[in-house]
């Protein structure tokens, strides 16, 4: 949670993870819609969930279509990332199957909006960490749901798995060695499925999948179940994208490592393009091979997703915003030593985390073999303050504008 000043008025905004479900369900939580008044016939209904990010509403989740009903009960749960958010908005639609009703701009069928409404994300409510019941009313329709909040600090807290036989919460080097692969199987399969049938999905990686579907996929991958491929082919693509994000979020340490985090933060802040280029490339070379190869694999995948931006609305910046804080963040020890709250952590570092990933996404293709051939960049006269990288056994990169020296071995 943090305070923003808007025209002299202090506004509270929330950062973290919001879980949404409904109070009535005993076994499976859900989002429950009730309609008041007299309805003619039955509807094919679904809802979209949006939250604002510093004033701009972004679609974060979508329920399945509940057919031929006046009171749908979806039995679905979503985890939604909040970034400086103040409001939750729910829009209820009737699914249209009439191919004559299309949008002239994109030739897509237009669904009828039945109503929309929103609530303020009350910091006192979201900080309770317990399920809180709420209702949004819209044009005679009531949507009942429950929500609970997890701070960003807790949502990204990495707990190593006690079982080393699975993949979630297990070091990437352990997984690749066991699988005798360069990139973990879960990463390869999720990427393949997204590129096969989800690369043109609007909001891919931004839209949350159903939490129960993601947990089911997690269990299947952890057990190395023989039905993985069949399950992937039948699963909603947003759940598969969510499983990939969850895998990276649950690594015992971020993909770009705790040790290199301070150097990445200072490297991205360099103003001289040549110094920044050499520093950022050296930092990649400093990664363990399994981390580096997996990062480069993911990088090229995200670039291919961004190539479809006119259709899927996911630019390089959008993808960097989704993945940056997951792939790169300070260790828990370092966070506690320098910052006092989850809001401070987010406001202090998240933009830099996004910028680091965006830098690599905007960079021409990076070859693993080429990185390994070029060992390091040496500055002749380092003139800027000592980098945190020095404390981690890394060379100093001067922000001087000098060309420096490449060493090939």
From TrEMBL:
PANTHER family: ACTIVE BREAKPOINT CLUSTER REGION-RELATED PROTEIN (PTHR23182:SF5), BREAKPOINT CLUSTER REGION PROTEIN BCR (PTHR23182). One of its GO terms (biological process) is signal transduction. SUPFAM superfamilies: C2 domain (Calcium/lipid-binding domain, CaLB), GTPase activation domain, GAP. Residues 170-368 form the Rho-GAP domain. Gene3D superfamilies: C2 domain, Rho GTPase activation protein. Residues 1-136 form the C2 domain. It comes from Molossus molossus (Pallas' mastiff bat). It comes from the Eukaryota. Keywords: Cell projection, GTPase activation, Guanine-nucleotide releasing factor, Synapse. CDD domains: C2_ABR, RhoGAP_Bcr. Its main location: other. It holds the Pfam family C2. This is ABR activator of RhoGEF and GTPase. GO terms for molecular function: GTPase activator activity; guanyl-nucleotide exchange factor activity. It is found in: Cell projection, Axon; Cell projection, Dendritic spine. GO terms for cellular component: axon; dendritic spine; membrane.
């Amino acid at each position: 949670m943090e305070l923003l000043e808007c025209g002299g008025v202090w506004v509270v905004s929330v950062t973290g993870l919001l879980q949404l479900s409904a109070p009535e369900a005993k076994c499976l939580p859900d989002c429950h819609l009730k309609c008041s008044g007299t309805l003619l016939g039955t509807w094919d209904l679904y809802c979209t969930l949006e939250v604002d990010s510093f004033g701009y509403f972004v679609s974060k989740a979508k329920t399945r279509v509940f057919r031929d009903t006046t009171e749908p009960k979806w039995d679905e749960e979503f985890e939604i990332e909040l970034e400086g958010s103040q409001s939750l908005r729910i829009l209820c639609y009737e699914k249209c199957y009439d191919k004559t009703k299309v949008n002239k701009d994109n030739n897509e069928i237009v669904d009828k909006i039945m109503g929309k409404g929103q609530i303020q994300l009350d910091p006192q409510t979201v900080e309770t960490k317990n399920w809180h019941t709420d209702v949004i009313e819209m044009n005679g329709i009531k949507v009942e749901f429950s929500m609970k909040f997890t701070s960003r600090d807790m949502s990204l807290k990495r707990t190593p798995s006690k079982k080393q036989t699975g993949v979630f919460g297990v070091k990437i080097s352990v997984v690749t060695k066991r699988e005798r692969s360069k990139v973990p199987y879960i990463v390869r399969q999720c990427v393949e499925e997204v590129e096969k049938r989800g690369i043109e999905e609007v909001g891919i990686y931004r839209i949350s999948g159903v939490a129960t579907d993601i947990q089911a996929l997690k269990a299947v991958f952890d057990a190395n179940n023989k039905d993985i491929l069949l399950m992937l082919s039948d699963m909603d693509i947003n759940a598969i994208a969510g499983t990939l994000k969850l895998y990276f979020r649950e690594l015992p340490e971020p993909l770009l490592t705790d040790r290199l985090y301070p150097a990445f933060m200072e490297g991205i802040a360099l103003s001289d393009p040549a110094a920044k280029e050499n520093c950022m490339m050296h930092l990649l070379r400093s990664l363990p091979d399994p981390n580096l190869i997996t990062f480069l694999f993911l990088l090229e995948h995200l670039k291919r997703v961004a190539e479809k931006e006119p259709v899927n609305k996911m630019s390089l910046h959008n993808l960097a915003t989704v993945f940056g804080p997951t792939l790169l963040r300070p260790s828990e020890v370092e966070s506690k030593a320098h910052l006092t709250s989850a809001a401070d952590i987010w406001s202090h570092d998240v933009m830099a985390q996004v910028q680091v990933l965006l830098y690599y996404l905007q960079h021409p293709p990076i070859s693993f073999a080429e990185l390994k051939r070029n060992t390091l960049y040496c500055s002749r006269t380092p003139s800027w303050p000592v980098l945190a990288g020095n404390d981690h056994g890394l060379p100093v990169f001067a922000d001087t504008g000098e060309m420096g020296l490449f060493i090939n071995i």
